[in-house]
C-alpha cells in the first residue's frame, strides 16, 4: 500500500468517525461556537493526523536498485530469477489518478466560484449604509459577505430588513467565517468520494448561520421580524453559490434553532465525550489500516548467508555485492542444515553465486556436484517468477536507497499458502519484507540483526 493511499484512507476514515459523533451528539446543541470549533478541528485533524508520528502511522518506505534476486524454491531447492521485471498495470496508480481527477474538478469549480466573486467585486462600488462600509451592487441580488466585506443592494431592502441583513452579515465578516467556508470547500474537494465530507461541509455552513442569527438577535432585533426578513430574502434571487446562505431549504432549521431554548450548561459534557471518542477511534482505525499492524507479532528474522562462494571458490560478501547483476547466471542458496550436509561443518547459510562467464568452469562443476547431493538446483516456476517480479517491483518503488540481498519463497510458510521473503540493507540495517503468493506485501519491513 503506497503512502499516498494510506494517507487518504486514514484521512477519510477520520471524517467518517467524526461526522456521526457530531450529528449524534452535538448538532442540536445551541453552543454554536463550540460546534464551530469541533467542526474546524475535525477538518484540520483529519488532514494532519496521518502525517504525525503516531503509532497508527505507516513508516515511510522507499525502493532499491537490486544487486541480485534469489528464489528459494523450498527448504532444499533454489533458483535464480534474473532480467527486467515485466511491466504490469499499476491499478493503485490508476485509482489515485481517478481520485485526483475528481478532486481537480471540484477544486476547479471552487476556482470558478472565486473568479465569479471577483467579477462581482469589480462591478460593485464602495458605499456606507447605516454606518457600515459595504460594496454596493446593482440589480436584484441576495446579500452576502466574503472575507471582511459585505455585498448588497441597499435599495432592495426596506429599512427594518436592511438593518437585519447588515447585523447578520457583520457577524460573518467580523468572525472570519469565510475561512471556515473555504476550508470546508477544500476538504470536500479533496475527499469528494466520502459522504462525510459533504455532510460536514453542510453542517459547518449551517452552524455559521446559526451563530450569525444568534449574534444578530443578541443586538436587540425583534425575533419574529428578523425571521420574517429571512423568509422574504429566501424567496429572492440566489446569490453566489460559494457564499449565499439566504436559501429556503436551510431556513426551516435556522428558525428551529432560533426558537430552541438554550442548551443546559451540563450538556457541554457531550463535547468531552464526542471529541476524545472520535480522536481515539480515528487513531485506532488508522493503526489497523497501517501495514505494520498486519505483520505477525511473533515474526522473527531469518539469518542471511554467512558464507559466499563465487564461481566455485570461497569468497566474501563484498566481492559478491560488487558484481554486475547482468553478469550473474544463477544463485544457489543453502540453509544451515544443508550447508552442514554438503560441507561437513557448521558454517551457517551458504550463498553460491555463479557468473555467466564461469558457469561451466571446473571449480563450478565440482562445487555443484557436491551441493546437488543435498540441494539440487531447480529453475523457478512461472508462478514463482511472476510473484518475485511483483515483489521486486514493490521493492524498487518503495526502497530506492537500499541494497537488495535476497528475495524468494519463505521456507517456513505453509505449502498451501506460499509466502516470499525479501532481505535487504537500508540505512545501515538489515531488513526483511514478506509477500503473499501473488507478490503483494504482507505487513511492513521488519529490522533483523546484522550478521557477519
TrEMBL record:
This protein's name: Peptidase M56 domain-containing protein
Pfam families: Peptidase_M56
Region feature (Disordered): 425-452
Membrane-spanning intervals of the chain: 6-26, 38-71, 91-112, 271-289
Coiled-coil stretches: none
Polar residues: compositionally biased ranges: 426-452
Domain Peptidase M56: 149-257
Keywords in alphabetical order: Membrane, Transmembrane, Transmembrane helix
UniProt entry tagged with the keyword Transferase: no
Taxonomic lineage from the root: Bacteria, Pseudomonadati, Bacteroidota, Cytophagia, Cytophagales
PANTHER family linked to this entry: POSSIBLE SENSOR-TRANSDUCER PROTEIN BLAR, SLR0241 PROTEIN
